[in-house]
Write a sequence for this structure.
């Protein structure tokens, strides 16, 4: 049907004959010259017609073009069965200039929906101050998705996890020392309510019910991992409703926690990385009828500094995806495109495994938005299951890629020569008490002359550098919970600096209450140090603008400092800053904070989006907290994400020296685990007391030499989970660190999709194997929860017979 001609418009619109002249008189006729009857009838008709027209317009604008409901068996889009083929893409992890490109890639992969988290700390960086601009302009992201033919599943939080700083929570919540996040703490709920109201205002209009692309909205995130309070989930659900969300609301959880916090008025979906059949069976226990959906299906996994780069198992991924497609189940691939965690966005996995800034995630669409073998295999698989008439478009063109030849850095700004005006404080306090979210704080005080002595504090989050009169003496390191440094004797009063870098706040478990900086008191030789100067170094644009640079001398530059170089670029394009000659810190290109780097790897390059470069001179600033011996700026035309360099780690060992041999501890329990992947709860005949907990595997169900554990949690004598705050791995006989990340910390990070695994790529030591936890203090242990390695039945390392040891270190 063709659009109507001008004059004809009227006739067309209403089907009645109205002379053109009448129209022009409309403006006037009504009030002034007394018209004849025919004139009155015409005018009235016109008014009715206009009112009718306005009515139509408004109804068309608000009448949803589409409807989406959760049917008895399927999702129904416009009344027809709709299998959600969704993939996760975080707007915050993609340069806005590339949102359309990445969404076109998602469409070309065969997805019909994208799923996106909101990160509260990005949207409300200060209490009551909302920011929806730039990378936080999620409304624009949704609009582009709609333009590219994609629906949207929105995950506004308030908690997201996602390896994002504090799981998305704004750190200012922690200024209140008593706040209890993810509970019905009124302080917390008030803040959530204000945030959700704003989310409703900004994104409510983009719901399918208003003509937008948003199909469903998630309440919280995997709450079952954290608590069982269904009322809390109810409060959040109501906030979303009160904020104008009228599309279906849902909740996601891993299979072992689907019932925790469950409510009938929240549609449940299950998250898993393997065993779809088993996971959907568990889901059917709380959802006897209705569409089955996997809320997060992992094609890869995220990386943490110092651990092996994660690569997903392609065959298993494709087999499980095929299973879901064939069975008509809906799913969301987490991540379809991981992207990059720019700026201060990275989180940390528990107990304290800081996440890398690359969030490539071995996803089908690579960090720089490139197609991969996994992309094409996924696309081909989807093509086999398309509803009639649906096609998959070609991928968009690859963005230009360049490299940049090495440029020597000539200017640097030593941090100690660029300190701001200090704040005086009797005792050192956390970042949050100084209203500082990110960056570093230099805590300075005077120390008297005296013999060699140890300076220490109960906790220093996260990495501390201890200087005496500007000379670095040593490091404190939260990874190994080593919070002390031995200072040499001094014959006169000296200046002590404890320079503390906050890495990402833990994004999972109760540890999200992650206050940065020094947890005092600080003592020297047991005597408390008071009278501190606090130098706040938020590493923000304002700070960078005031740095005073000086020439880099031939001897390089010792100590933390900013290094600046100008690189000339002919034709801007994507590239990867080569960080091999740098230590640890942040990098900026033309003012864009690219995020964190750390020479221990596995990531050795930082993604630089082409649109952030310009023809001609480009300013590169690199903060190196360790000080660079060879400050050179260069960029490669490919990423390096899989190169561990443990020899460069400033911490001699990743773990405190084991103070106890597990065999010195008393055996408190011995038994056989059940086969399979289900979570198993074990109660001891009588509670045991001790600071150390060890499990010894005697053999495995597959008869092989390996042991593996996805998760182990301890229970107190009432059966309640013990807090894992301060836990570290005291000792382990073997862990695979080359062929995959089988590090022991995976058994206590709360995530069941990764696992501790004994060596297999080189040596293959046989049972017995042991893993000893240092609980940080003596506690009463009444039992434990053991989650075997997840996945299909033939996975290696599922422990069969075992012994448990609990006790304190034998007196020296
Ligand atoms: C969980 C969370 C996600 C993300 C993945 C791991 O399932 O819900 O936000 O943290 O784990 O990448």
């Amino acid at each position: 049907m063709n659009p109507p001609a001008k004059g004809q418009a009227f006739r067309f619109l209403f089907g009645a004959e109205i002379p053109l002249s009448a129209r022009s008189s409309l403006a006037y006729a009504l009030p002034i010259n007394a018209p004849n009857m025919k004139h009155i009838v015409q005018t009235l008709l016109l008014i009715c017609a206009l009112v009718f027209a306005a009515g139509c317009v408004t109804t068309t604008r608000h009448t949803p073009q589409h409807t989406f409901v959760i049917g008895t068996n399927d999702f129904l889009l416009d009344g027809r069965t709709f299998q959600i083929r969704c993939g996760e893409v975080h707007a915050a992890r993609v340069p806005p200039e590339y949102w359309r490109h990445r969404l076109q890639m998602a469409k070309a992969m065969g997805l019909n929906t994208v799923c996106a988290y909101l990160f509260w700390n990005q949207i409300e960086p200060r209490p009551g101050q909302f920011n929806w601009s730039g990378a936080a302009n999620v409304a624009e992201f949704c609009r582009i998705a709609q333009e590219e033919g994609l629906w949207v599943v929105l995950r506004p939080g308030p908690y997201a996890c996602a390896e994002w700083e504090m799981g998305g929570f704004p750190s200012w919540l922690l200024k209140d020392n008593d706040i209890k996040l993810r509970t019905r703490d009124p302080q917390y709920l008030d803040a959530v309510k204000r945030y959700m109201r704003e989310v409703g205002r900004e994104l409510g209009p983009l719901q399918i019910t208003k003509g937008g692309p948003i199909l469903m909205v998630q309440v919280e995130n995997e709450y079952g991992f954290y608590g069982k309070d269904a009322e809390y989930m109810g409060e959040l659900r109501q906030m979303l409703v009160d904020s104008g969300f009228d599309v279906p609301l849902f909740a996601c959880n891993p299979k072992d926690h689907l019932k925790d916090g469950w409510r009938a008025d929240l549609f449940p979906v299950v998250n898993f990385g393997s065993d779809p059949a088993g996971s959907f069976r568990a889901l059917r226990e709380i959802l006897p009828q209705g569409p089955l959906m996997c809320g997060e299906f992992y094609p890869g996994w995220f990386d943490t500094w110092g651990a092996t780069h994660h690569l997903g198992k392609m065959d298993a991924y494709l087999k499980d995806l095929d299973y879901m497609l064939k069975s008509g189940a809906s799913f969301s691939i987490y991540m379809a495109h991981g992207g990059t965690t720019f700026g201060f966005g990275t989180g940390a996995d528990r107990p304290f495994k800081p996440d890398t800034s690359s969030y490539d995630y071995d996803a089908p669409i690579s960090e720089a938005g490139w197609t991969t073998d996994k992309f094409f295999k996924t696309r081909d698989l989807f093509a086999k299951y398309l509803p009639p008439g649906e096609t998959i478009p070609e991928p968009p063109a690859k963005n230009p890629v360049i490299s940049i030849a090495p440029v020597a850095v000539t200017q640097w700004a030593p941090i100690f020569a660029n300190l701001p005006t200090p704040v005086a404080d009797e005792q050192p306090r956390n970042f949050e008490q100084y209203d500082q979210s990110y960056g570093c704080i230099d805590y300075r005080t005077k120390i008297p002359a005296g013999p060699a002595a140890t300076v220490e504090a109960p906790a220093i989050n996260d990495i501390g550098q201890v200087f005496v009169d500007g000379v670095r003496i040593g490091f404190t390191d939260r990874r190994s919970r080593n919070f002390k440094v031995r200072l040499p004797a001094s014959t006169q009063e000296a200046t002590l600096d404890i320079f503390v870098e906050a890495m990402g706040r833990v994004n999972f478990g109760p540890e999200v209450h992650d206050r940065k900086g020094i947890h005092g008191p600080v003592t020297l030789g047991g005597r408390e140090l008071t009278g501190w100067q606090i130098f706040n170094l938020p590493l923000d644009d304002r700070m960078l603008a005031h740095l005073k640079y000086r020439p880099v001398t031939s001897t390089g530059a010792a100590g933390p400092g900013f290094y600046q170089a100008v690189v000339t670029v002919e034709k801007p394009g994507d590239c990867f800053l080569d960080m091999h000659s740098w230590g640890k810190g942040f990098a900026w290109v033309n003012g864009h904070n690219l995020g964190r780097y750390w020479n221990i790897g596995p990531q050795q390059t930082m993604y630089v989006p082409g649109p952030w470069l310009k023809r001609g001179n480009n300013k590169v600033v690199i903060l190196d907290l360790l000080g660079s011996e060879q400050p050179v700026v260069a960029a490669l035309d490919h990423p390096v994400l899989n190169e561990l360099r443990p020899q460069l780690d400033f911490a001699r060992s990743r773990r405190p020296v084991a103070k106890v041999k597990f065999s010195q501890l008393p055996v408190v329990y011995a038994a056989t685990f059940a086969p399979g992947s289900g979570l198993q709860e074990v109660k001891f005949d009588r509670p045991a007391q001790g600071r150390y907990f060890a499990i010894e595997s005697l053999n495995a169900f597959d008869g092989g030499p390996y042991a593996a554990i996805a998760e182990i949690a301890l229970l107190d004598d009432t059966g309640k989970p013990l807090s894992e705050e301060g836990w570290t791995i005291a000792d382990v006989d073997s862990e695979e660190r080359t062929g995959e990340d089988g590090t022991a910390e995976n058994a206590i990070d709360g995530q069941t999709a990764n696992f501790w695994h004994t060596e297999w790529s080189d040596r293959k030591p046989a049972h017995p194997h042991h893993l000893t936890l240092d609980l940080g203090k003596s506690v009463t242990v009444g039992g434990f929860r053991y989650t075997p390695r997840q996945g299909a039945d033939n996975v290696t390392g599922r422990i069969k017979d075992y012994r448990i040891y609990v006790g304190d270190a034998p007196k020296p």
Summary: The longest helix spans residues 37-62. The radius of gyration is 30 Å. Residues 1-34 have pLDDT under 50 and may be disordered.
